[in-house]
């Protein structure tokens, strides 16, 4: 099995029975804030795009690059579709000219012509990707590969049970706006960033240890930030709180925990994977490339500057009545929302900075009142500040996912009172009837599901599944004193009260080993 690195989470997998191109991303994403690093735009995409199969893990724009898919990937390729709850991914592929689809049943091995086998695991909670994420398992002639990319499954046993995996490709770096955009003292940002960076690596080590593959390939990050306004987000400034470590840092950190089987793929690197080992060739020496990272980034910044400026010039739509359009689009969804509106629980404010860089219009999405209206000087739990032109553009293109556009762009600042609230971001990625109905149904189902099984962690008996996204706490749970941390997403719980310390709306059932069994989670804890 030959694996050719094509940048970020992208790769081409070649076997004698066929080729699969995965997640090709080349063009800037999220309001031209994210670029692939190392740069992959100079690869021979005319050839790389001539494949038998195409797999895109999810609809995040650093994985689903519509322009590149339209221009460079053969329309004769069969698209391997995860079993997602909505038809959005297939609809988008069809709009680009793809006509051949294989809808892979979730977690079922499918044998393709020539003996090539694949299995796709789809993750379908409202917080997975835009509205779903997935991993791809491939086997040919006894060689097995798992492309986990960004996905965070609670359990890798479904893959391990199919036989020893020889190549495990997974994310290790950050892909979020936290904590950089929050209006906090720099010392607090650094502390929170370091915590997140450490959790990212801890989660990666856990996945690697679970699968025990022959070789580990760090992929799916980090992006680079070439706009001058975002340049500080690149991990080149000696900031221990930067959440975007690169592949060379991965190798260094991996070595500290005993890892010796890591392989980096640069764009154009080729790994020949067999049951006996892996040999890799690179277009340039890996260590030398990352030693000159700053120079590479500076060269990219100048080369890509015209692209960024052209993108910025397209965002202004002064003809758009922002308040009126937000009311038209969002109020019907607020009327239909039960779980998300209740979960947000208060007004969310958008401060829109005018073209002059000074004037501000403040608009409130009032979840309890089910309306969008001008700010009335009330206290809000969440506040976002961004350029008016960005909201104009989202409304102009009828964007249904403001998370997979505005928030991932990091072109905003945020402030909040109290804990993180996942429902805020869940709502703003569901600005369509289809997405909202799915998310509401998902939360309704999980609200009514009682997790009856308990486990013992240290001095505490706790429910086996994390209240957040049902991670198995026998594997991801760590108890320190009276606090439980689920390492899958870093959520923390106060065990004596059961209260979630990370977000609102979640509670864990717990009691000390030598105490009586308490009331079920959700009921009063005395």
UniProtKB/TrEMBL annotation:
InterPro entries: RibonucZ/Hydroxyglut_hydro (IPR036866), Rieske_2Fe-2S (IPR017941), Rieske_2Fe-2S_sf (IPR036922), SCP2_Rv3818 (IPR057330). SUPFAM superfamilies: ISP domain, Metallo-hydrolase/oxidoreductase. Transmembrane segments: none annotated. Pfam families: Rieske (PF00355), SCP2_Rv3818 (PF25451). Keywords: 2Fe-2S, Iron, Iron-sulfur, Metal-binding. The keyword Nucleus does not apply. It comes from the Bacteria. Residues 461-515 form the Rieske domain. This is Rieske 2Fe-2S domain-containing protein. The lineage of its organism: Bacteria, Bacillati, Actinomycetota, Actinomycetes, Micromonosporales.
């Amino acid at each position: 099995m030959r694996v050719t690195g094509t940048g970020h989470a992208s790769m081409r997998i070649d076997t004698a029975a066929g080729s699969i191109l995965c997640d090709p991303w080349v063009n800037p994403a999220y309001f031209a804030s994210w670029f692939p690093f190392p740069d992959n735009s100079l690869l021979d995409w005319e050839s790389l795009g001539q494949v038998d199969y195409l797999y895109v893990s999810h609809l995040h724009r650093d994985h689903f690059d519509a322009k590149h898919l339209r221009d460079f990937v053969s329309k004769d390729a069969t698209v391997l579709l995860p079993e997602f709850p909505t038809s959005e991914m297939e609809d988008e592929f069809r709009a680009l000219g793809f006509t051949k689809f294989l809808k892979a049943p979730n977690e079922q091995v499918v044998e393709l012509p020539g003996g090539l086998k694949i299995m796709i695991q789809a993750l379908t909670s409202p917080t997975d990707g835009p509205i779903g994420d997935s991993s791809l398992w491939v086997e040919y002639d006894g060689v097995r590969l798992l492309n986990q990319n960004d996905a965070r499954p609670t359990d890798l046993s479904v893959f391990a049970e199919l036989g020893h995996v020889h190549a495990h490709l997974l994310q290790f770096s950050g892909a979020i706006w936290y904590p950089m955009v929050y209006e906090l003292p720099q010392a607090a940002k650094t502390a929170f960033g370091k915590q997140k960076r450490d959790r990212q690596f801890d989660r990666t080590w856990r996945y690697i240890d679970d699968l025990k593959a022959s070789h580990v390939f760090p992929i799916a990050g980090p992006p680079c930030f070439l706009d001058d306004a975002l340049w500080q987000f690149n991990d080149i400034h000696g900031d221990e709180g930067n959440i975007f470590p690169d592949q060379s840092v991965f190798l260094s950190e991996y070595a500290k925990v005993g890892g010796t089987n890591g392989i980096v793929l640069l764009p154009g690197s080729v790994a020949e994977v067999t049951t006996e080992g892996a040999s890799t060739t690179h277009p340039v020496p890996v260590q030398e490339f990352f030693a000159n990272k700053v120079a590479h980034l500076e060269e990219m910044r100048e080369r890509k500057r015209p692209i960024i400026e052209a993108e910025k010039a397209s965002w202004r739509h002064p003809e758009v009545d922002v308040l009126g359009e937000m009311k038209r689009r969002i109020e019907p969804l607020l009327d239909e929302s039960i779980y998300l509106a209740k979960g947000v629980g208060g007004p969310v404010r958008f401060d829109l900075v005018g073209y002059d860089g000074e004037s501000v219009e403040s608009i409130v999405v009032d979840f309890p009142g089910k309306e969008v209206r001008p700010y009335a000087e009330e206290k809000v739990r969440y506040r976002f500040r961004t350029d008016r032109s960005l909201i104009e553009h989202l409304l102009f293109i009828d964007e249904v996912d403001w998370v997979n556009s505005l928030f991932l762009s990091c072109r905003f600042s945020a402030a909040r009172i109290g804990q993180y609230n996942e429902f805020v971001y869940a709502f703003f990625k569901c600005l369509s009837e289809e997405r909202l109905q799915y998310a509401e149904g998902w939360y309704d189902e999980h609200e009514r599901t009682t997790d009856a099984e308990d486990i013992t962690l240290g001095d505490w008996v706790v429910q086996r599944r994390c209240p957040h996204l049902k991670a198995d706490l026998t594997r991801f749970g760590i108890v320190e004193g009276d606090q439980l941390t689920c390492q899958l997403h870093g959520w923390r719980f106060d065990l004596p009260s059961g209260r979630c310390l990370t977000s609102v709306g979640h509670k864990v059932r717990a009691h000390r080993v030598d105490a009586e069994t308490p009331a079920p989670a959700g009921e009063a804890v005395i």
